[in-house]
Amino acid sequence: MQSGSTIPVIEFRDVSYRVQGTDVLRGLSLQVAKGETLVLLGRSGSGKTTTLKLVNGLVSPSSGEVLVNGATHNEVDVIRLRRGIGYVIQEVGLFPHFTVARNIGIVPKIEGWKEDRIRARVQELLQLVGLAPEIANRYPHQLSGGQRQRVGVARALAADPEILLMDEPFGALDPLTRDELQREFLTLQRGLHKTVVFVTHDLREALRLGSRIALMEAGKLVTVLTPNEFVKSDDPWASAYVKAFGGGLESAANRGSS
Q1: Distance of alpha carbon 33 from alpha carbon 214, whole angstroms
Q2: Alpha-carbon distances, residue 76 vs 57, 65, 68, 92 (angstroms)
C-alpha cells in the first residue's frame, strides 16, 4: 500500500470463487491503495477478469470477503456501488442506438443530473480523452475502434468515480492506436489520480501502466511487485514472463514511472 492511506480502497480477504465445483480463484488476499494503478497480469484462465468482477459485485465470492472503502458488498447498496465505479471493457459495450453524448451521459442521467450539466460534462470528457466536440452527435458505428475506446473511457469517468476497473481495454486495437491510448491513459491518471485495477495479459502494457503488478496463475496470486521489481525478480513465474517477452522491458517499466 502507498503511504498515507490507512484503509485500502479495495481489499480482498482470503477470497475464493467456485463455479460448479471448480476453483476459479483460491485464497486471494490483496489490497489496492488510493490513487494507484494495480495491474492484474496473467494468462487466459488465471482469474483476472473474475477478480475484477468481484470488486463491483458482478460476481460474489464463494468464501472470503471483498471490501470497497472498508465495507463489504453486504453492507452497501450494490447498485449504487456500481454507479460509483467506472468500468471499461475490451469490447467497449456502447449502446449502438445511443449517440456518443447519450452513451457518455448515461450514469449522470440516472443519477439525476440536469441536462445542461450533462452536456457540459460530455464536452469536458471528450476534450479530456482527445476527441473533437462534434463526435458527440455520432453513433458508435460511425467511429473507429480507437475512438470507441476513448468514448468508453469517457463514459466510465462521467460521474467522476473514485475507482476505475479496466478489463483489457486496449487489447483489440492495432499496435499504434494501442500505444497512443496507453500514453493518454498515463497522462489522464497523472491528472486524475483514480484508483485503477487494470487487467492485461501483456507484460509490456503492465510494466508501462502499473504502479504495481499482481501476477496471477491458475486462480492464485503468485506475487505483487512494482514494474522495476518485476523485471529483476527471481520469482520463477515472473522470470518466465520476462523471458517470454524478450528484451527492452526495463525501458517499458521506466516509461510508466517517468
Answers
A1: 13
A2: 11, 13, 9, 27
Which tens digit of pLDDT belongs to each residue from 176-234?
988 999 999 999 999 999 999 999 999 999 999 999 999 999 999 999 999 999 988 88
SS3 for 81?
helix
Cβ–Cβ < 8 Å for 171, 202 = yes
Where along the chain do its domains lie?
A: 91-161
pTM tops 0.85:
yes
Read off the C-alpha cell for 120: 457540459
21: its cell numbers: 465445483
d(CA 84, CA 56): 9
Return all residues near 111 (Cβ < 8 A) that are at least 6 apart: 83, 159
Is a pLDDT exceeding 50 seen at residue 175? yes
Amino acid residing at 222: V
- Spatial neighbors of 251 by CB under 8 A, at least 6 apart, are none
Task: Say if CB 107 and CB 144 are below 8 A apart.
Answer: no
Cell numbers that stand for 36 in this block: 494507484
Can you give the pLDDT at residue 1?
41
Longest pairwise C-alpha distance within the chain: 55
pLDDT at 238 > cutoff 70: yes
Q: Look at strands 85-89 and 163-167 and give their pairing.
A: parallel
